[in-house]
Amino acid sequence: MARTARALVHALQALVALVFAAGVATRNPSVAVNALLGLLVTFVPNALERDHGVVLGPLPALWVTLAVFLHSVGMLGLYDSVVWWDHLTHTFSAGVVAGAAYAVVHAVDLHTDAIYLPSPFVGVLLVVVTLGFGVLWETAEFVARDLATLLGFRPVLVVYGVEDAIVDLAYDALGGLLVAWFGTARLDRISREIEGRLQGR
Questions:
Q1: How far apart (Å, rounded) are the C-alpha atoms in residues 6 and 49?
Q2: Among positive and negative, which fits the CA dihedral 17, 19, 23, 25?
Q3: What pTM, to 2 d.p., does this model score?
Q4: pLDDT per position as a tens digit, 129-173
Q5: Cα 7 from chain centroid?
Q6: How many angstroms separate the CA atoms of 201 and 198, rounded?
Q7: How far apart are CA 22 and CA 64, in angstroms?
Q8: Model pLDDT for residues 174-183, shown as the tens digit of each residue
Q9: In whole angstroms, what is the distance from residue 38 CA to residue 73 CA?
Q10: Under 8 Å CB-to-CB from 149, ≥6 apart: which residues?
Q11: Could you give the CA distance from residue 84 to residue 177 in angstroms, rounded to a whole number?
Q12: Element (H, E) at 89
């Protein structure tokens, strides 16, 4: 299972690299920049393991890489041609944010007796944090578009309007809820890895 997951991560990274190459070849900065930045994000799990000793395992790395792949491929035109593609990518990306938030928050909860976070509160917190990151992302899209237009460049992020941003936030919330309901048990090991680093182990 672990070997298969790692192989899929490498395959998806290669495909994202191809999307970057396609963006460069077609002189499309939106495709190239999003693919390049996304590709860098896919190496974060390995960096955490190598530099900080936090072993995430292959499945979280696959989750992150799949979210990046879906977004990168979407920039090739699927966001415009497939109605539900944006919903899919927001749900996956929000799940990544919620998973990271849970791992860190639960690690702190394990680390100190001064903080007690009951399960219902953690679920609400995950949705709130995920929505917070969603608002920051939507704001960044609008700012990046307006700044690029002001400077005479082609925007690297696609903005469809306020109504679309609200729908995106709804799917961000869905991603947070899915992690709160189904994913926390699978993230406990990672929380304990982080707590071990906090303890200096």
A1: 14
A2: positive
A3: 0.87
A4: 999 999 999 898 888 878 877 877 777 776 777 888 899 999 999
A5: 20
A6: 8
A7: 22
A8: 999 999 888 7
A9: 11
A10: 155
A11: 19
A12: helix 85-111
